[in-house]
Amino acid sequence: MNCRDTSFVHAYADRELDLTQSLEMEQHLQDCGRCARELQNQQILKTALNNVQLYYPAPEELRRQVAAASRRSAAGSGRFQWNLNWLFAAISASAVAAVVLLFGLAGPQSKQEQLVAELTSSHVRSLMADHLADVISTDQHTVKPWFNGKIDFAPPVKDLAEEGFPLFGGRLDYIRGRPAAALVYSRHNHKINLLIWPEGAAESPAVLLKRRGYNLVHWSTAGMQFWAVSDLNGTELKEFAETFAH
After folding, report:
1. How far apart are CA 102 and CA 15, in angstroms?
2. 28 and 36 in contact (C-beta within 8 Å)?
């Protein structure tokens, strides 16, 4: 895959690649920081553009003027046609200006929001590409050593089947510009992505967040960051997090 051509990254972000291409891009993103950053930028932009503050309905008076202009255009006046084109150009320019202004007012996302957007996109991407796991196993003693030599830390892997959260497998992911371990657990018909990477931070208890219809639980311990992401309800996802953390 050609790193100089970012169109594949854009197509991947827009879900336009087929399964084979998506899997190839998944592998490429693990090895290419430039493309991973470009994907992150695309995800941040998409999240920002979903902000309701960016939607600006046309005033009723402007709607009436455009409707009246459309009716008069049936006369086929060349002079009026020029005026109508000018009017549409003015409307388009005003709309662009409004979006730029509102986007500026909304301000840049915080680092926390950028991370949450990246984690949510990672979860959705793993389901879309049907690529939840590089190693599929319910045995923690199979999943844990699989990471040896692939990342520079040893993620904790736990068997939570008796607690109702059986292990599904694991894979490599790419978060915040560095490799991360992704453990996959199940709860009924829901999948839970647990993303782990080392990052010095004070220990913190599990905290539940909700974004874009998904639930996320974050906690940190022993110099590791833990983020669980799923469409599972918040109560059960937090139960999973607290069970894993103890």
Report:
1. 27
2. no
Give the pLDDT band of residue 6 (cuts 50, 70, 90): low
Between CA 99 and CA 82 the distance in angstroms is 26
Taking the C-alpha atoms of residue 45 and residue 59, their distance in angstroms, rounded to an integer, is: 27
Residue pointed to by tokens 């970012």:
6
Backbone angles phi, psi at 195, to 5 degrees: -100, 135
Instruction: Quote the CA–CA distance of 41 and 6 in Å, as a whole number.
Output: 12
98 within 8 A of 56, measured Cβ to Cβ: yes
Alpha-carbon dihedral 52, 53, 54, 58, rounded to 10 degrees: 100
Question: Any bridge partners for residue 169, and if so which?
Answer: 136, 184
Q: Which of 12, 246, 8 is nearest to 129 (CA)?
A: 12
Query: In this structure, which long-range contacts are made by residues 57-64, counting pairs with CB atoms below 8 Å and at least 24 apart in sequence?
Result: 58/91, 62/91
CB 8 within 8 A of CB 1: yes
Q: Rounded to whole angstroms, how far apart are CA atoms 109 and 89?
A: 31
- Taking the mean position of all CA atoms in its chain, how far away is CA 226? 17
Residue 42 and residue 39: Cα distance in Å, rounded? Answer: 5
Q: Taking residues 216-228, what's their average pLDDT?
A: 95
pLDDT of residue 148: 95
The three-class DSSP label of residue 201 is: coil
pLDDT at 96 over 70: no
Percent helix, strand and coil across the chain, each rounded to 5?
A: 50, 25, 25
